[in-house]
Amino acid sequence: MLRVATTPLLLLSVAMTSACDWMPGRPLRENAPKPESAVHDFDPLWTNYCSGCHGTDGRFGPARPLNDPVYLSLANDEYLRSVIVNGVPGTMMPPMAASQGGPMTDEQVGDIVGGMRTAWAVDGAGGGAPPLQGKVGNAANGLAVFAAACASCHGADGRGTPAAGSVVDDAFLAMTSEQALRSAIICGRLDLGMPNWRGQVGTRTIESHQASTPLTSEQISDLVAWLVSHKVTYPGAPYPDTADVEGSN
Description:
The chain is mainly alpha-helical. It has helices at 8-19, 42-49, 51-54, 69-74, 77-86, 106-120, 139-149, 151-154, 170-174, 178-187, 217-228, 243-247, and strands at 200-201, 204-205. Among the domains are: 37-120, Cytochrome c-like domain (Cytochrome Bc1 Complex, Chain D, domain 2), CATH 1.10.760.10; 139-228, Cytochrome Bc1 Complex, Chain D, domain 2, CATH 1.10.760.10. Helix content is 41%, strand content 2%. It has a two-stranded antiparallel sheet with strand order 1-2.
């Protein structure tokens, strides 16, 4: 017969394994936190999976603000679901659906989309806006569009001014998709004061755009093409030449 030594440590381990749900300070099973896949309320889902990039209240994050009525009026549910499920290749947006290796169930993806609409959408907010997706533009034409619509804030060469940062920085462009650039031009950044395609921040037309006409879909495509033309193969500062160091060892 196999005999097992019953040391005090072994007895303590067995006791803790079999009865830990009822140890002092532990919740009863019926009051225990739900597993993450069982959470369907918008607020905890947003906090856990989205707020780190898109902001606590959908704004003031490093990524596109989704608390934006114009954006939500242009992005239909199918498009939003696709971005959440599959992510955006070549950017910092990862696939979030469990089917793609992410943490969220398909139902939770729907909860996020529905929650954004309930919390932040406004009927008719994007009236008259160009479509969120467009065709490939002409970079040469985009330079003229940039000079007229963007240079007052971002500088004649796009490298930034005290009013706004660079939009041709190679590290920035390396982490930004063409669609993200188009979305930013159409919708602006309501949280940061960047005007939308008609020169407005919310309902206020900014001074430098008082005499401007709204950008057309073709102009936006050309502007995106001009911005993308500044992408480089290896973004960031050049690596130091270590050949001499290696040769001396």
